[in-house]
Amino acid sequence: MFQRILVANRGEIALRIIRACREMGIETVAVYSEADRGAHYLSLADEAWCIGPPQALESYLQIKRIISAAEIGNVQAVHPGYGFLAENAHFAEVCRSCNIEFIGPPVEAMQQLGDKVSAREIARKAGVPCVPGSDGLITDVEDAVRIADSIGYPVLIKATAGGGGKGMRVAGNEISLRAGLAAASAEAEKAFKNAGVYLEKYIEKPRHVEVQIIGDNYGNVVHLYERDCSMQRRHQKLIEESPAPKLPPEVRERICNCAVQLVKTAGYTNAGTCEFIVDKNFNFYFIEVNARIQVEHPVTELVTGIDLIKQQILVAAGEKLPFTQADIRHSGCAIELRVNAEDPDNGFRGSPGTITRLRLPGGPGVRFDSHVYEGYTISPYYDSMIGKLIVCKPTRQEAIECMRRCLHEFVIEGIKTTLPLAKKMFSHADFVDFNVDTTFVERTF
Ligand code: MV4
């Protein structure tokens, strides 16, 4: 087992990893930028090293600085968290070449599944339903027109190196397809240094359902059931929950088993998420793999009782999974609300600043994962999420009532937050009845 782990991240996920390590008797080395100097979570690590100025590109994204901190800190492994370098195959390679374990999937699996076209090929090989579309990258516009004619408009042009909605364009007819291909390619080249694009039939108003999986280095892969993430705005998830409401049991079973088949075929190990879209007839289609731990992992932890961060560390240290699929029980309903320092009355623009008053909710089944405290200053340099409020109750109705009670108690002053929007979402009949899809939030609020 590792004696020391470097936490190559910041904020709530850094704190989450520090906490898991402490419970496992593993020491932690934290890294921080000038903007994060003095944050209380750093004092919970055994050591903390400044790796640069506030800009992420000069600090948290600087591979050589992270590796230097790992060397100085004399660690055996690095946990990348999510975002930053978490899905950077080169970083994983550099770690392993420096004899430092990267707590995540093998480099090859990360590369294969990180490329959306190759992920689709692996899905097809694994017998996992994919959206009808092009077999590979679009190399010739006339080909694309032929494919679009056969699958029918509207089609989605997607960047193979993209993901999470980046580099996607809808084309409603041949003219917009021709224009869209050129624009999407140029955008992809600029954003990802990879102009490759592919086509998919555009599934209108889908639900977004993702399956948590974890695999060890001995070929054991289990799923930890699904999460519905349809409540999102501009590809930023706001609410995630498990189980996915109103999903027929046999669809649930199939979608979870597809995720296991897919990652087994890819030789993927450690924690990951297979993302699907589900149409109104409950047909589901594989979209992409997120080769990292995700923001919303607590939802799964609460309904399965499994500590995903600890399992990641155990798997990276070469342990077998301590459970089989038959051991995994899903019980209750967990709902997560992301709390962002944004101003809903001003286009959700960031609202950094100092928290002058903080009153947290609590009680049975309430968890708040956050690094903030009264007097903490939210930096403008990073993601606006300041914490996640997760509730777990026997039924969805009770979970919603509990979330409403928490929102009634929750006080954050000194900055604008999305709490007022959250109160509206949890009181909206369509959300309570779960008549929602990925366009609901933008349509309704
Ligand atoms: C789609 C889709 C509909 N049809 N693909 C968005 C980012 C990535 N997670 C995959 N995404 C989607 N892929 C096809 N063929 C719908 C989504 C989607 C979405 C699209 C637009 C606006 C919000 C969305 C939220 C979740 C998924």
Strand-residue proportion: 25-35%
By CATH reckoning, the class of the largest domain would read Alpha Beta
| Biggest sheet details | 8 strands, antiparallel
- How many beta-strand runs? 22
Radius of gyration: 21 Å
Name the helicity range: 25-40%
For the record, the count of structural domains works out to 3
Q: Which ligands appear in the coordinates?
A: ligand MV4
Key attributes of the depicted protein:
8-stranded antiparallel sheet; 5-stranded parallel sheet; 3 domains; Dna Ligase, domain 1; D-amino Acid Aminotransferase, Chain A, domain 1; binds ligand MV4; 22 strands; alpha+beta; Rossmann fold; globular; 445 residues
Description:
- With 445 residues, this protein is of the alpha+beta class.
- The chain has helices spanning 11-23, 63-73, 89-97, 107-114, 116-125, 141-151, 174-192, 249-265, 297-304, 308-316, 396-409, 419-427, 429-432, 440-444; strands at 4-7, 27-33, 47-52, 77-79, 101-102, 155-163, 166-171, 197-201, 207-215, 221-233, 236-242, 270-278, 284-290, 333-340, 342-343, 349-350, 353-354, 357-359, 366-370, 377-378, 385-393, 411-413.
- The chain has an 8-stranded antiparallel beta sheet, sandwiched between helices. The protein has a 5-stranded parallel beta sheet with strand order 3-2-1-4-5, sandwiched between helices. Strands 7-6-8 form a 3-stranded antiparallel beta sheet.
- Helix 1 (11-23) links the parallel strand 1 (4-7) and strand 2.
- The mean pLDDT is 97.
- Residues 131, 156, 164-165, 200-203, 206, 208, 232, 235, 275, 277, 287-288, 438 line the site of ligand MV4.
